[in-house]
Write a structure and sequence with these properties.
mainly alpha; globular; transmembrane; YSL-like; transport; Probable metal-nicotianamine transporter YSL6 isoform X2
Length: 548
């Protein structure tokens, strides 16, 4: 949606090859809600008939779903209920602190580059390269939640890009690219930032896609032989094993008791697909009905692959499947509408693949918590319907209240620019890239593949210290400031774990959630103030004493 709006179109450049004014569609509540209603439910119906196969027959772990089930089950013990109460109180305390701090910061942000969000705590020289701490509770909270290797990978990406690569390329301004370009012109340094980030993301995504597909095929081929080689008889079971088997049979019985008829799932998918084939070309005219039909024929297979891979690795590759759909559809349609068609197809594919994997993850949680599968499916339908209204309204509020997508604003929304550029490349090729940009991108793409390969072939004690290319790519475009925030979060967590590991395990998630939620809640009154044109009263600005 951001990739289609007018702001992103102008940000890339009205004279940029392939970036046409006809390929602009600004967010609107009507078409966004309608689009979500016709695409969001298809994924729920696509894999319902396979729930027994995925959860019971293949016994896929779905790590996040299993962890959620264990947490829910723990609430029904005396110790678990007591811990849950303490966690809720902890969350509330840090939510209040985060909300109060975000409100306090707002009063000092009354101008460009003002306030604590632009605090040059590491000095003005590093500040110009975006190395500063912006006192963001959200990013510090993310650092508390994310694994240490993710946070360190983000910081490493920031150091490589903003510490070395961009200053190096800037030395060749006037040779590799015109020196008098705007900071957001894709024919200049900005183009290197976006396309090198894209190359890292694609390299990581494609590697993991083929890796998980290979694991999926191998597991499916070996499943029957593994089961036949491990016979289980009642006589061989001791008391503990017999108890576990009884518990498993109880779960199986409850899981299968409320059957969701296959004909209902098939009818739902076909009916919704028929509505979508008629509706989506009305919303996005370049995406013809036969392209929508082709997407829906392929989508269930991709949804199965992604759900199976998520069950094995807990890694959903939704965006990778979406990018594949984007590239294929945009190249098929061509320059006349290919950008809109590709981006719309990307949204369709991601909606189906994501909801299917999420539903199967929830089925695993329901299986382990003895919940009714039919009740969970109905709840998912209700929740999806609510999301089809709440999400667009929230998004539209942000889009109208804030300068979403601005490189100099607080909400940079980098993937809007990245996805639109992917669509343009699919229709126009790479001839308009800055000098040596394609060669550098190829180098980073290969490096992304090799880093992932090395992570997989080296022992665990070594691979745990090898960075993740996908995480490294994000600061290449956004900047280094949020990497500093996340690293502060990971340092706090590391020290906490060294001092009291059990407390860190019990409360780190609650602290992080409180920090993130408090900062997020403040955006609501902040958006309302912005809509009524009420600005902060003070501008706290930092500059060199030599220029004062």
């Amino acid at each position: 949606m951001l990739a289609l709006d007018e702001k992103t179109y102008k940000l890339i450049g009205v004279d940029y090859p392939g970036n046409r004014a006809e390929d602009v569609k600004n967010p609107g509540l009507g078409w966004m809600i309608g689009f979500l209603f016709v695409v969001s439910f298809l994924g729920l119906f696509s894999l319902v008939p396979l729930r027994k196969v995925m959860v019971m027959d293949y016994k896929l772990t779905y790590p996040s779903g299993t962890a959620t089930a264990m947490l829910i089950n723990s609430f029904h013990t005396n110790t678990g209920a007591e811990l849950a109460g303490k966690q809720v109180r902890c969350l509330g305390k840090y939510l209040s602190m985060s909300l109060s701090w975000s409100c306090f910061k707002w009063f000092f942000s009354g101008g460009k580059a003002c306030g604590f969000d632009n605090f040059p705590i590491l000095g003005l020289t590093l500040y110009k390269s975006t190395f500063y701490f912006d006192f963001s509770p959200t990013y510090v909270g993310c650092g508390l939640i994310c694994p240490h290797i993710v946070n360190c990978s983000v910081l490493l990406g920031a150091i490589i890009s903003w510490g070395f690569l961009w200053p190096f390329i800037s030395q060749y301004a006037g040779d590799w690219y015109p020196a008098d370009l705007e900071s957001n012109d894709f024919k200049g340094l900005y183009g290197y930032k976006v396309f090198i980030a894209i190359s890292l993301i694609l390299g990581d995504g494609l590697y993991n896609l083929f890796k998980i597909l290979a694991i999926t095929v191998n597991e499916i081929c070996n499943k029957s032989s593994k089961q036949s080689n491990l016979p289980v008889t009642a006589d061989a079971l001791d008391g503990e094993a017999s108890k576990l088997l009884t518990e498993q049979r109880r779960r199986d019985h409850i899981f299968l008791k409320d059957r969701i008829p296959s004909w209902f799932a098939a009818a739902g998918f076909v009916g919704l697909a028929a509505v979508s084939i008629v509706t989506i070309p009305v919303i996005f005219p370049p995406l013809k009905w036969y392209l929508v039909l082709s997407s829906y024929i392929i989508a269930p297979a991709l949804a199965f692959c992604n759900s199976y891979g998520t069950g094995l690795t807990d890694w959903s590759l939704v965006t990778t499947y979406g990018k594949i759909g984007l590239f294929i559809i945009a190249s098929l349609v061509g320059t006349n509408g290919g950008v809109v068609a590709g981006l719309a197809a990307c949204g369709v594919m991601m909606a189906i693949v994501a909801t299917a994997a999420d539903l199967m993850q929830d089925f695993k949680t329901g299986y382990l918590t003895l919940s009714s599968a039919k009740s969970m499916f109905v709840s998912q339908l209700v929740g999806t319907a609510m999301g089809c209204v709440i999400a667009p309204v929230t998004f539209w509020l942000f889009w109208t209240a804030f300068d979403i997508g601005s490189p100099d604003g607080p909400y940079k929304a980098p993937y809007g620019v990245i996805f639109r550029e992917m669509a343009i490349i699919s229709t126009e090729g790479v001839s308009e890239l800055p000098k040596h940009c394609l060669a550098i991108c190829c180098g980073f793409f290969v490096a992304s593949l090799l880093i992932n390969l090395v992570r997989d072939i080296t022992p665990k004690k070594i691979s745990q210290f090898i960075p993740i290319p996908m995480a490294m790519a994000v600061p290449f475009y956004i900047g280094a400031y949020f990497a500093i925030d996340m690293f502060v979060g990971t340092v706090i967590l590391y020290v906490w774990q060294r001092m009291n590991r059990k407390d860190a395990e019990d409360y780190a998630g609650a602290v992080a959630s409180g920090l993130i939620c408090g900062d997020g809640i403040w955006t609501i009154p902040s958006a309302i103030l912005s809509i009524f044109r009420i600005t902060p009263p003070i501008c706290m600005y930092f500059g060199s004493s030599l220029t004062s």
